[in-house]
Amino acid sequence: MELIDTHSHIYYDKYNDIDEVLDRAHENNISKIICVGVDIESSFKSLNLAEKYDMIYATAGYHPHESKDADVSYLKELEELLSHKKVVALGEIGLDFFYKHSDKKTQISVFEEQLYLAKSLNIPCIIHNRESDKELLQSINKTKNNNGVIHCFASDLKLAKKLIKLNFHLSFTGLITFVNELKNVIKNIPLDKIMVETDSPYLTPVPHRGKRNEPYMVKYVASEIAKIKNISLEDVANKTTKTAKDFFGI
């Protein structure tokens, strides 16, 4: 059995035991980890880890929280990062109208610029969406970029079906181990549209809530999906791993 953690932020200082973290991932059949940047600095940190460790792949992008800091050269810097063979997606990009660390207009502008960039480079996107369902769909339709995954999907079944119809994938975190509304979404969407992730260090799944999340805990997400769909863990692992490999080209 093989699993891929498709979304983590293990470049944070709290992972000063990175070798042990990766050992635990290996021991739990995690074959690959996608380390996701949220701005230029963190994207370089992700790339540094990817260059050091075979099992890690990087992404580069401007998170909606950080979009206020995207200067005139940010697209050029991202394009340079995305040219590296171990940078496999543009992300984490998107919209977040819950925290509003950046104003809506700036978020939408930076999101759409990055969607256009990804489309021009034919590279997939990792998309963040929180309390911005309507605007998310508007930006997707405007840019005509449907090569993406909605990370940490936490919206309703109606949006899930709309996104799947547009050819998006949905990725689920440890939230599904304690948020019952998401179980109905998983039950009613195709397994081949699902990926699994930790979003480490956040969203630690049951039974480890309150502790630092790390890539090996993606197994709890996969196990919960198996339980919800009444299928084997092996089936979930095989399908989500194939989906992730195809999506990221790894």
Descriptive tags:
250 residues, alpha/beta, TIM Barrel, 42% helix, globular
Overview of this protein structure:
The chain is α/β, with parallel strands linked by helices and 250 residues long. The chain has one domain (3-248): Metal-dependent hydrolases (TIM Barrel, Alpha-Beta Barrel), CATH 3.20.20. The chain has helices at residues 18-27, 40-52, 74-82, 104-121, 133-143, 157-165, 180-187, 218-229, 233-248, and strands at 3-8, 30-35, 56-60, 87-96, 125-130, 148-150, 169-172, 194-196. It has an eight-stranded parallel beta sheet. Helix 2 (40-52) packs parallel to helix 3 (74-82), helix 4 (104-121) runs parallel beside helix 5 and helix 8 (218-229) packs across helix 9. It is globular, with a radius of gyration of 17 Å. The model has no long low-confidence stretch (mean pLDDT 98).
What's the layout of helices and strands?
Layout (H helix, E strand, L loop, with lengths): L2 E6 L9 H10 L2 E6 L4 H13 L3 E5 L13 H9 L4 E10 L7 H18 L3 E6 L2 H11 L4 E3 L6 H9 L3 E4 L7 H8 L6 E3 L21 H12 L3 H16 L2
Parallel strand pairs: 1-2, 2-3, 3-4, 4-5, 5-6, 6-7, 7-8
Helix pairs in contact: 2-3, 4-5, 8-9
Low-pLDDT segments, ≥5 res: none
The CATH topology turns out to be TIM Barrel
Number of structurally distinct domains? 1
As an assembly, this protein is: single chain
Structural class: alpha/beta
- Note the run of SSEs as H and E: EHEHEHEHEHEHEHEHH
- Share of β-strand residues: 15-25%
Helix count equals: 9
Got a strand count?
8
- Estimate the helix proportion, in percent: 40-55%
The CATH architecture term is Alpha-Beta Barrel
Summarize the biggest pleated sheet.
8 strands, parallel
Strand adjacency order, main sheet: 1-2-3-4-5-6-7-8
CATH superfamily: Metal-dependent hydrolases
The outline comes out as globular
- Please tell me how large the radius of gyration is: 17 Å
Mean of residue pLDDT values: 98
Instruction: Report the end-to-end length measured between terminal Cα atoms.
Output: 17 Å
Query: Under the CATH scheme, which class?
Result: Alpha Beta
